[in-house]
Amino acid sequence: PPVLSSTEHAWLFKLMQPMKALLQVKEELEKNLGHEPTEGELAKATNMNIVQVKKQMEIGRAARNKLIKHNLRLVLFVINRYFQDFTNGSRFQDLCQAGVKGLITAIDRFEPKRRFRLSTYSLFWIRHAIIRSMTVSSFTRVSFGLES
């Protein structure tokens, strides 16, 4: 997929905002009620009807998925730039998966009003997720001098 312009990013993030607000309300309701709230309870808490809640969630998810899809190349860029030693190995798919998790985290936590670009913000989260997965799975590269 082609790279999105900054105006398209801003538009998609604007579409995601109602979904984020609904998810925050849902989280608060879950704490207060002790169980996951139904769509009716969520609609009542937000002064909307169930159809509006479903539509806002659907639009938000579609915008989020589009942002993820159009920024997947960023994951490959980070892997090729910072983790070149692992690109040919058997762990490449693991690195890609960790990078995509980082991209999703970046998109979920990104705030356009801070005036950062998504790509700059995402680089940190992608690298962080990859390094964390390498640490957790504890695979390390043995340098050539230590192999013998």
Automatic annotation (TrEMBL):
One of its GO terms (biological process) is DNA-templated transcription initiation. InterPro entries: RNA_pol_sigma-70_dom, RNA_pol_sigma70_r2, RNA_pol_sigma70_r3, RNA_pol_sigma_r2, Sigma-70_RNA_pol_init_factors. Signal peptide: none annotated. This is SIG5. It holds the Pfam family Sigma70_r2. The lineage of its organism: Eukaryota, Viridiplantae, Streptophyta, Embryophyta, Tracheophyta. It comes from Carica papaya (Papaya). One of its GO terms (molecular function) is DNA-binding transcription factor activity. Residues 22-62, 67-133 form the RNA polymerase sigma-70 region domain. Belongs to the sigma-70 factor family.
